[in-house]
Amino acid sequence: MLVLRPVSPNDLDALLALSHFTQFGLTTLPRDRDLLAHRIEESQHAFAVLDGAKPRGEAYLFVMEDTDAQTLVGTCGIVSKVGGFEPFYAYRIETTVHESKTLGVRKTVDALHLVTDHDGPCEIGSLFLHPDVRGGGTGRVLSLARFLFIAEHPDLFDPVVIAEMRGVVDDRGQSPFWDALGKHFFDLDFPKADYLSIVNKQFIGDLMPSHPIYIPLLPPEAQAVIAQVHEKTKPALAMLESEGFIFSNMVDIFEAGPVMQCPRDEIRTVHRSKHLPVGKLIDEPTDSVDYVISNARRDFRACKTTLTIEGDTVTLPRDTAIALDVSIDDPVRFATLKPV
User: Fold this and answer.
1) Cα Rg, the chain, nearest whole Å
2) Percentage helix, strand, coil for the chain under 3-state DSSP, each rounded to 5
3) Integer CA distances (angstroms), 277 to 200, 263, 295, 323, in order
4) Which residue in 25, 151, 179, 326 could disulfide with 166, CB within 3.0 to 4.6 Å?
5) Chain centroid to CA 115: how far?
6) Does 271 participate in catalysis according to the annotation?
7) CB count in 10 Å sphere of residue 133
8) Would you state the CATH architecture of domain 2-92+114-269?
9) Where are the domains of the chain?
10) Residue 158 in this model has a pLDDT that exceeds 90
11) Residue 97: pLDDT band with limits 50, 70, 90
12) 262 with 243: CB under 8 angstroms?
């Protein structure tokens, strides 16, 4: 069974192996042992202070484990609040109107304005699934399970949630947007700049121009990819849209991928999830739609299942209960895997 759980120090080697399947533009799962070890340590600290905490930039990292093969097949994460000493950077697309009554000309012009946010929203990211297990709703389980965690601990997260979607980057690490804009200010190729952004963002504040960038002045190939996603990111974008996320009018400063956003409590899985005790365990799957389900404990576990709601309790397949480490009367939180 595929089970989502918090990352642990013992996952480092498997996480590093998984990172070698990633492509350019996914900075949150770097092919760097020391950086991954640091991310694991950060996550351990975050999970250790769940009671009474407020969002201060904690980074929660989850892994999806194939419990039968005892291998890691995916990752996802949540940052409770971006900003602080290391600001959140993005470009906001703003439209201005220029008009000449003398010439009888009225033009609307889009421009990119640099956003430097020290008091930012919650951010979901680090979503990656091994190619061998993609399909069948596995990616949706991996993504939505973290919303169950947010629903269980809402006060740990900022009231607005964003997701930076991977923009258009080819297999060689070439980004039309970066080549047209960022490269001129940083004197770095896209993969190097993308990697440095997870090590230390100070160089962005040092070198990024603060004045508006008029989009019509960019080459056509750069304009064409603004707010567009990588081909392999389209399913993730569609899933977030089905959860209530919309385009925020902001894009990534490196490859111009869209920044999606939704109020935390309006995310479908968050506000429609149910919290009920287990009333009965059965040996066969129930005849129901698929759900994503989690336990309600500090040692968070989540997976896909079928279930039956019976009054104020829920009936679960026994293998789901084993995966979640729950018994009769233990509370669980669940939501349908797809909108119904």
Assistant:
1) 21
2) 30, 35, 35
3) 45, 28, 10, 16
4) 25
5) 20
6) no
7) 16
8) 3-Layer(aba) Sandwich (3.40)
9) 2-92+114-269, 274-336
10) yes
11) very high
12) yes
From the list 20, 184, 230, 271, the catalytic residue is 230
Q: How many CB atoms lie within 10 A of CB 95?
A: 10
For residue 27, what pLDDT band results from cuts at 50, 70 and 90?
A: low
Which fold, 274-336? Barwin-like endoglucanases (2.40.40)
- Residues 6+ positions from 283 with CB-CB distance below 8 Å: 317, 318
Confidence of residue 196 (pLDDT cuts 50, 70, 90): confident
d(C-alpha 6, C-alpha 43), whole Å: 8
Secondary structure element (H or E) that encloses residue 203, with its range: helix 202-207
Task: Give per-residue pLDDT as tens, 50-96.
Answer: 887 789 899 999 999 999 999 999 999 999 999 877 889 999 999 99
Strand pairing report for 331-336 and 291-295: antiparallel
pLDDT at 197: 77
CA–CA separation, 237 and 38 (whole Å): 28
Distance between CA atoms of residues 156 and 273, nearest Å: 17
Q: Check if the beta carbon of residue 112 is closer than 8 Å to that of residue 212.
A: yes
Query: Does the reported pTM lie above 0.90?
Result: yes
